[in-house]
Amino acid sequence: MLLPNLQAMCTRSACGARRRSIDCSSASVQTHRTQSLGDSPVTGNVSKSSKSILVGASIVFCLLWLSPTGTNTHAQSARPISGEAFDTWMREISNWGRWGPDDQLGTLNLITDEKRREAAALVKDGVSISLAHDVETHEAVDNPRPFTMVMGGLDDAGPSVSDQWTVSYHGYAHTHLDALCHFSHQGQLYNGVPDDSITVDGCAKLAITNFKNGLVTRGILIDIPHLRGVDFLEPGSP
C-alpha cells in the first residue's frame, strides 16, 4: 500500500477541456500546492530541505495503457474525438451535484474514513518506496521553466542555512496535483463554478487547499520495466 500524502497521488482530477493559463507564483491560494504530497510552494523557504521532489507518480491508469505484452494498445486504437462528442461526455459523464451544490472535493469524497482504515490495514512489511529522482534543473522542451534553488546564510555568521526554491509545476517535468479549478469548460469549472471566480489572487473555490488534510488511500505501484521484461525504459519509450 502507498500512502499518497507521503509518496504520491495516484489519480488527478480535471473538469473540462479548455486550459486556463494561470500564473500562481504570486497567488495567495495556490492551485498546485499541497504540503501533504511533499511538494514545496511555487516559491518558498525551507531549512536544509531535500534537493529532490517526487516526480513521475502517475501510476493509476497505467494498466489501461499496457497490454499483457507491454504494448501501448491505447495509442494503436486512438482516434480523433469530435467536439460534439466531448460536450456530450461532459454532460452525461459528470459528478456535478453528486455531493451537493457546494461540493469542492469531487471524487475525493469517495475516500472516506472507512476507506482510509481499510488502506492502513493492508500494510504488512511497512517498506517505504521512493518515487523521487533529482529535480530537473536544466531547461528542455518539456521543462521550459526548470527548478532553481538559491542558498541563503552561507555568508552569515549564524549557525543555520536555508534555501529558496522556485518551481513551475505545470507540465510534465515535475509531479504535481491539479486543483479542480485548473480546467474549465464553456465558462464553468467543476460543479458549475464560474471560471471568472479565478483571479490574480488564486482560486476563490476549488483550490488545492481543499485537500489540506492530506490524501490517504490504497495505491498500486506498477514496475513498468519489469512488466516489459527490461531493466529500464529507453528514452522515447511510450
From TrEMBL:
Ranges annotated as spanning the membrane: none
InterPro entries the UniProt entry points to: KFase_sf (IPR037175)
GO biological process annotation, one example: L-tryptophan catabolic process to kynurenine
Molecular function terms from GO: arylformamidase activity
Protein name: Cyclase family protein
Organism: marine metagenome
